[in-house]
Each structure stands twice: as structure tokens, then as C-alpha cells.
């Protein structure tokens, strides 16, 4: 992997410090107006179910798709579906895959990728990550423009991936939600139940959103966008 990283050269341009979602209902609730690029962010599926796991994976893919350069994705198992990532805006040619033997190797490879500084995003998938490990990732990300994304998988059916404290700036729970109804038989655009469980310097919130499009952007369902603030109240309450 070191040889691959050395072959990637930065373009010398300064990067914006924050990656916004492009959805006001989310960005306005984030303390930094988006996701800090020089920081660690954690994502977990709301349940161990395949639908929620896939939704969390595609949520990560959409974030990485909107980052500025190559993406390092460190996996424990070969279960990523490239066409699904592509539909969420993440082109296969941008992704460098690294397969790790265990959680410790995942975290080590992520740290090395973050310190390289020529990647747009570094993603890793683990079942366990101690506070000290997430602190190392946060320190490796600070001062750069490579967003660190850690997917916390369920270690057991009844385990909470966020039970262990973390240095992550934000922690997100993602679940699948009923898709948009269509006037004819068929399946509408996928929807996700997105919950920000914790953020540094801000409050948690909860929204129903439409899944990433081919540019990696999520959107509010039309019924929430069109609803007047006075009639519908806060979007978080309406969508909860």
C-alpha cells in the first residue's frame, strides 16, 4: 500500500475545511456547517440487518464521493458492491481497496492513509475500536484535508457499536426507511433514517432523507421540503 500511496501526488490546491451535505436541514444543524475534513467521523447501521448495513455503507460512499480525490477503503471482507457505490456517486476508479486481517490492521492502515495527505477520504470498517485508537485517527487527520470515516459494525446482535467512547467529531446511525411511493407499481427512490447520535459542539438530531443520487448527494423528501415552517414545525420533529 505504501508504494500505491507514494504514486499519488497532491495538486497543491488548498482544500475547504468542511464538506457540506448540500441539504440545509442537515448542514444548518451541524456545528461546523458540514463534516470537518480534518476529523474522524463514525457511522453505524441502526441494526445488524442487511438493509441497514447497506444503507450505512452507501451513506459513507456518498460522503466519499463528494470528497476531493482518491479514496482508500480498508475492509475486513470482500463484500463491497462496486455498482452500488457507483450509484451513490463513488466511481470505482477513485477507490483504492486494502484488505486487513483484523481490526487492529484496519486502524493501522487508516492511520497510514491519513498521514499521507494525498487522499480525499479514508474509510475503514471495524467491529471494535478503543478510545485510544480513535484518538490516533483523529490526530492523524488533524491539519489535513483527508476526511476519516470509520464504519462501526455490530459485534453481536444486541451490541451497540457506539457503546465505547470515541474521539470522533460526529457519530451517525443509519437505517433503511420505506421508499417514496409511486403513482404506479414499482419502487421509488430509497430513503434512509439518519440520526446524528453525537456531535462535538452541537446537538443530536434525526431526519428521514432520500438516499444518495449519482453525485453523492442526499435530499429531503419533497413533502418535507414543501411544508411551510409554521405548519410543519422543525424538520427534525416532522421527520422523526
| Head-to-tail CA distance between termini | 43 Å
Beta percentage is 15-25%
Tally of DSSP helical segments: 9
CATH homologous superfamily grouping: P-loop containing nucleotide triphosphate hydrolases
**Uncertain runs:** 225-240
Quantity of strands, as a count: 10
Q: Can you tell me the number of structural domains?
A: 1
Largest sheet, order of strands side by side? 5-4-6-7-3-8-9-10
Q: Mean pLDDT, nearest integer? A: 88
The top-level CATH class is Alpha Beta
- At CATH level 2, the architecture is 3-Layer(aba) Sandwich
Task: Tell me what you see in this structure.
This protein has 240 residues and is an alpha/beta fold. Strand 4, helix 4 and strand 5 form a beta-alpha-beta unit. An eight-stranded mixed sheet has the order 5-4-6-7-3-8-9-10. It has a two-stranded antiparallel sheet with strand order 1-2. Helices cover 29% and strands 23% of the residues. The chain contains nine helices and ten strands. It has a single domain (16-239), classed as P-loop containing nucleotide triphosphate hydrolases (Rossmann fold). The protein starts with a helix and ends with a helix. Mean pLDDT is 88; it is low at 225-240. Helix 5 (103-116) runs parallel beside helix 6. This is Protein ImuA. InterPro entries: ImuA, P-loop_NTPase.
Amino acid at each position: 500500500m505504501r508504494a500505491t500511496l507514494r504514486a499519488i501526488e497532491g495538486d497543491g490546491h488548498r482544500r475547504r475545511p468542511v464538506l457540506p451535505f448540500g441539504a440545509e436541514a442537515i448542514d444548518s444543524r451541524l456545528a461546523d456547517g458540514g463534516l470537518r475534513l480534518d476529523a474522524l467521523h463514525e457511522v453505524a447501521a441502526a441494526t445488524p440487518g442487511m438493509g441497514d448495513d447497506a444503507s450505512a455503507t452507501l451513506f459513507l460512499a456518498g460522503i466519499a464521493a463528494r470528497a476531493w480525490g482518491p479514496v482508500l477503503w480498508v475492509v475486513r471482507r470482500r463484500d463491497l458492491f462496486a455498482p452500488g457505490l457507483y450509484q451513490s456517486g463513488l466511481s470505482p476508479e477513485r477507490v483504492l481497496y486494502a484488505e486487513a486481517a483484523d481490526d487492529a490492521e484496519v486502524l493501522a492502515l487508516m492511520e497510514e492513509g491519513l498521514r499521507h495527505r494525498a487522499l480525499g477520504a479514508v474509510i475503514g470498517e471495524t467491529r471494535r475500536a478503543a478510545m485510544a485508537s480513535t484518538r490516533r485517527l483523529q490526530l492523524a487527520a488533524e491539519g489535513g484535508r483527508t476526511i476519516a470515516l470509520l464504519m462501526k459494525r455490530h459485534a453481536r446482535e444486541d451490541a451497540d457499536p457506539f457503546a465505547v467512547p470515541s474521539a470522533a467529531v460526529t457519530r451517525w446511525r443509519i437505517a433503511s426507511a420505506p421508499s417514496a411511493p409511486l403513482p404506479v407499481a414499482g419502487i421509488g427512490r430509497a430513503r434512509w433514517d439518519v440520526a446524528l447520535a453525537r456531535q462535538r459542539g452541537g446537538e443530536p438530531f434525526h431526519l428521514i432523507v432520500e438516499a444518495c443520487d449519482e453525485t453523492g448527494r442526499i435530499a429531503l423528501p419533497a413533502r418535507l421540503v414543501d411544508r411551510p415552517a409554521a405548519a410543519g414545525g422543525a424538520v427534525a420533529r416532522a421527520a422523526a
